[in-house]
Design a protein that fits this description.
This protein has helices spanning 2-11, 34-42, 61-66, and strands at residues 17-19, 22-24, 46-48, 92-94. With 121 residues, the protein is an alpha+beta fold. Pfam families: Glyco_transf_49.
Length: 121
Amino acid sequence: MRILSNSILEKHPKTALVYRIFETKYNATQPKTKTDLKNMMESDEAFEFHHTSNDHSIEHLNEWFESPESDTESFPSIQFFKEYDSPKWEPQFVSKSDIPLFDIGFRYPRRDNTVLVNLEA
């Protein structure tokens, strides 16, 4: 992800790279591949993060499952581009380290995502 983010964000600094996150049932074996994850989702052992509210859902999930698995040798790719068009959507993202730490557009208490983590290159 770091290689992809450095490459994309250098050219497009106002872009945020959104990534999918999932949760599993308590004590479930953690998936090691997308195939494992897909099988767990089909058996209701894994879910999109906060799936009951749909705030973190990213469209085209089935298409993502069908795409080849990235390995340590391959360069990760971007599945699709999307405008941030819904105040209900709370994606997890990677961005440049110089973005503002706070945005008044995120209203409390529903939109209070204030934690940003800086990963040194």
